[in-house]
Specification:
Blueprint lengths: L10 E4 L6 H31 L6 H30 L3 E3 H34 L4 H4 L2 H27 L8 E2 L6 H6 L6 H34 L4 H29 L8 H25 L2 H22 L1
Parallel strand pairs: 1-3
Antiparallel strand pairs: 1-2
């Protein structure tokens, strides 16, 4: 995949947060805590859904896939960031940087597609409830998951192959806390027009089309909810998709803020904050939002907790 003879740069210096060492220690503690909570929250979500028969439904199966993508994403970014904060060197090998971006792109593509699939699931459940179980069968659910992962893998592989074929001759400084594509391309002394065009074209099936489908799905959902005569019925129906709508808003809001909106005049601190939101914050918030706003997940979690504690007691005593 990577053409090693072309690249002149062997190491890349991530400049990070431009903060003092004392502040770095504070950031290290906060991010380490967030990372542990993210792993525990998403792993617990996967385990509870697998354990509870009441949660063996398409939307919860999609949710486990989203949790897996969140685990991969945060594990790709945070451990390297923690190492750089603690040692203040910020040095990563060139191919390590390319690999980090590869996993990052793969996870972000997967999340975009999974959120779109979940929007379609909510559309069927609310707008076509009588045919929901027939349309959203186990086979279709599995096909949608496989398509999301395979398509994300194919697109991210194509992007990384094109990027790694460029010639990189420095400087080897990236003013960011992880290896994202725009700062990587700035290190190239080759003509990057072709790569930028390819990335623009691949962003259509990964970002624009999914976002458009999400907007269309929720437009129909809102129309159906407004037609419900009682306020209690409207509130109950909206609650079934409010968690997903919250996650979609945060995810696409931060993503568009970094990659779509013009960055000229935007301070580095704002860009860094938005990048932290979708690489560190969103993977933490996803299981929290879904669990706190879903009584069925909370009930299944309490049942799982009771059974788990009983097993420990039997083992000990």
């Amino acid at each position: 995949m990577f053409q090693q003879n072309i690249s002149i740069i062997t190491k890349i210096h991530l400049l990070g947060f431009h903060s003092s060492q004392n502040l770095n220690y504070l950031l290290f503690t906060i991010l380490l805590l967030i990372y542990c909570m993210t792993l525990c929250g998403n792993l617990l979500m996967v385990i509870v859904v697998m354990y509870s028969r009441d949660l063996h439904r398409p939307i919860y199966f999609f949710l486990t896939q989203l949790s897996i993508a969140d685990i991969l994403l945060t594990t790709d970014i945070v451990p390297i960031l923690l190492h750089h904060l603690l040692h203040k060197d910020g040095v990563i090998s060139f191919f390590g940087c390319i690999a980090q971006f590869y996993i990052f792109a793969f996870c972000e593509c997967t999340e975009c597609l999974l959120l779109t699939v979940m929007s379609y699931d909510r559309y069927l459940a609310i707008c076509n409830p009588l045919r929901y179980s027939t349309i959203m069968s186990k086979s279709l659910c599995l096909k949608l998951i496989i398509i999301s992962w395979v398509l994300s893998f194919s697109i991210s592989t194509a992007e990384i192959a094109s990027t790694s074929s460029l010639e990189f001759c420095g400087p080897n400084d990236i003013d960011h806390f992880f290896c994202d594509l725009p700062p990587i391309l700035q290190l190239s002394c080759s003509d990057i027009t072709g790569v930028q065009l390819e990335i623009m074209l691949t962003s259509v099936p990964v970002l624009l089309c999914p976002f458009t489908l999400v907007i269309i799905s929720y437009t129909y959902i809102i129309f159906v909810i407004l037609k419900i005569p009682s306020a209690t019925g409207r509130q109950k129906t909206f609650s079934t998709c409010s968690s997903h709508l919250t996650v979609v808003s945060i995810f696409y809001g931060t993503l568009f803020g970094v990659y779509i909106l013009p960055t000229k005049g935007q301070s580095l601190s704002i860009t860094t904050f938005l990048s932290l939101m979708y690489t560190v914050g969103t993977p933490l918030m996803n299981p929290v939002i879904y669990s706190l706003r879903n009584a069925q997940i909370m009930k299944s979690f309490e049942t799982f907790q009771c059974h788990f504690l009983l097993k420990i007691q039997k083992t000990v005593f």
